[in-house]
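Lab notebook, bench 4. The sequencing result for the construct came back, and we need a structural model before the next group meeting so we can plan mutations. Quick request posted to the team channel:

Model the 3D structure of this chain.
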Amino acid sequence: MMGWKKRLATVGPTITFDYLYMRERRRAPDRLPHLISAHREALHAATSQHSGPAVLAGKSMGSRVGCHLSIEEPSVRALICFGYPLKAPGKEAKVRDEVLLALRVPILFLQGTRDALCPVNLLEAVRAKMKAPSTLHLVEGGDHSLNVSATALRAAGEKQSDSDARVLAAIEAFVQTTLRV
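Done. Here's the predicted structure in token form:
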């Protein structure tokens, strides 16, 4: 995410943080209420330093926690989810869509077509049921981290930076349209 922090800084003020379990180098994440609390603290610190609308961007679990927080925090105007974890590894039947169905703020999903934690067909089925406006940007050949396979890059005659530039353009368009910047 540090590379994305630099790219996102071209769109607006960007602040990153680590959850407590990460700072303490624990493998297991904290329970959801603690994760939401840590996310809330980071949001309040960011909004105290910067004016303007708050857009939460997160990767995987961070995007899911950001979705939970957006339901509770009226200052959140939009969400950007890098590799949303719609299901746990190997658990096709259990789709984690409750929070997505409860959302009211616009959301941008940035998903790799090879992301085992968020198969595109499952995400499309959830998006069809969502009340919040959602946008999907697919990274062809991308994995859960939006990294495109070397084979796909060679076949397209591209570099990872080309794919990342398209993702950033999708983010810029989403932010401009959503916030009417």
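Residues 5 and 14 are 6 Å apart (CA to CA).
Will bring this to the meeting.
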